[in-house]
Specification:
The structure is a homodimer of 196-residue chains. With 196 residues, chain A is of the alpha+beta class. Chain A is built from eight helices and eight strands. In chain A, strands 1-8-3-6 form a four-stranded antiparallel β-sheet. A four-stranded antiparallel β-sheet of chain A has the order 2-7-4-5. Chain B binds a DNA duplex (30 and 30 nucleotides) through helix 8.
Chain lengths: 196, 196
DNA sequence: CGTCTATTTGAATGTACTCAAAAGCGGTGG
DNA sequence: CCACCGCTTTTGAGTACATTCAAATAGACG
């Protein structure tokens, strides 16, 4: 199996020698998942960290009004998981589901401790990608505190460049936390090019 | 200086022997800060991780409309910092300022690498507290996506128990991302006890 | 005591939601 | 290949949530 893309990703943060690469890839597994299949069900413990080789995935929850809210998307060369469930092994609060036919690489929770012990650099790696995530979430919180739906939509287009054509408008609305009708009117009446 | 509280905090996640405690405390420094003083200015690189022994701190930014938005508070026994600025040494996007006369313990960025090298357990510690933070931010994002101001206010009271009497209503509004007038009417007209 | 800021209250406005109905679009089976 | 079904998108009307602005009141602090 071809693990080039994931190795490239990891080696942006830590340098691995050949043995380390061998060990790391030995705990990975490749998987094809059809469109609209679940990778994680809420309530279950998340036992894998997922890397998207090809395709598109949504991570979402159902809120108290029964509406789906998309917490994040993952496309090519991105990791996705329920962090808290994965690390602490508590029941997940998210569902993770494919939006397209998708190819993923799995890293099992059970292989994490041996990986960290054998290649301690990975402790650093996970801290660093955790930090990236933290920063991404920070941006999102700031947008929610300060920006109107229109601005948040524009920020979304920047934060996830080129992803929009792969999603339904409904899904974008769910990510932004607005109603599909409202997003529709934002996109039409407006004014996205012209002002602000 | 008395480092008991911070040691207790750290040892909730990792166990330290005496030498490790000695080394860890040797890189800490204690500091008293008066009310309304800055601990970090936005634009500057955050060179310390702060632990609050006593007092209350706000971390905020000024949005594009010139309004202050409080990203988080820290009170007794909590860490606070600009994660991204601290770890990656980029200019901070936040101001951090005391709300009360405050006693803090500082951990300098420059001492972090030696600390991680000498006591690798700390690599784990920082990953774990990063994870806690991630989870806290997740909750906040979910609240912003799904909840009205009234619900967010109630969640705030739970997330920061007993902190409200120490803050002005204005500061709470700034944390929630609503206008002070609106929070005022929420608290009065209502209904916080009775419904929902 | 006076000044400065925070809080309250109300009116007018804007942003976003719900509900409903119509139109568009994609996939499936006959 | 077409017709139908189900889902998404659009549009509009009415409503609810939240903001701005302004003015009055209350509190905090030197």
């Amino acid at each position: 199996m071809d693990y080039n893309s994931i190795l490239k990703k990891v080696q942006q943060y830590i340098i691995l020698n050949e043995q380390e690469i061998d060990f790391f890839t030995s705990v990975l597994s490749f998987k094809k998942v059809k469109k609209k299949e679940f990778i994680l069900n809420s309530g279950k413990v998340c036992s894998n960290y997922y890397y998207v080789v090809k395709g598109c995935i949504k991570k979402y929850y159902i809120n108290s009004e029964g509406k789906e809210r998309i917490f994040e998307f993952a496309i090519e060369n991105q990791w996705i998981s329920d962090q808290n469930s994965f690390w602490i092994q508590t029941p997940s609060i998210f569902d993770i589901e494919t939006i397209e036919d998708t190819e993923i690489i799995q890293l099992k929770r059970i292989d994490i401790e041996p990986l960290l012990t054998r290649i301690p650099k990975f402790e650093r790696y996970f801290r660093l990608i955790g930090n990236d995530l933290l920063f991404k979430q920070e941006r999102r919180i700031k947008q929610n505190l300060s920006c109107s739906a229109k601005e948040r939509y524009k920020d979304f287009l920047q934060d996830y460049p080129n992803i929009e054509p792969r999603l339904s408008q409904r899904q974008v609305a769910s990510y932004l936390g607005v109603s599909p009708e409202f997003l529709s009117s934002l996109r039409n009446k407006s004014n996205l090019i012209s002002n602000t």
